[in-house]
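Quick one:
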Amino acid sequence: MALLVLCSREAALARRSGTVVAGGSPAQLSEMADKLAHDEMKKENIAGLSLAFVVDKKLVVSRACDLADVQNHAPASTATLFRTGSIAKPITAAAAMGLYQQGKLDLDAQVQKYCLEFPKKKWAVKTRELLGHLSGIRHYRNDDSDFFGTKDYAHVSDGFEVFADHSPLFQASHPDTVLHLRL
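Output:
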């Protein structure tokens, strides 16, 4: 989340000041990355982060700062995998939109077409339903054990164990399913 906050904040500052971030030299971008990381970590009390600047599809700056794991005093690196939490949802949605526009994603296909490891459920789960939180797959448990868990998974599909043995709460694609939205 820190990466997105930094980038969006910097883009807003650049627009206000008239600075063109993409036009900066590698040295300027490197200095900007250091300043952004330092300022945001101090302001938001962030233990560690990684950030990158990409210009014209080329990586021009890549940084990691301070700690990846506070308890074990493990330093962050550019290879550190940080938990993204709910910020993964809009990132995934943007990627899915791009794939859909390119004709590479069928929103009505079963999820297993794209992710073979996705656990089979009582009812078929379509990509569209999964993207819209309408698949019937449960949310985090009430005790927050899923949300605050610190288990590291070697592969994304290993994380499926959290809900692999749980039946869907409803069949989203069934015509009799009525969804009640909370606002």
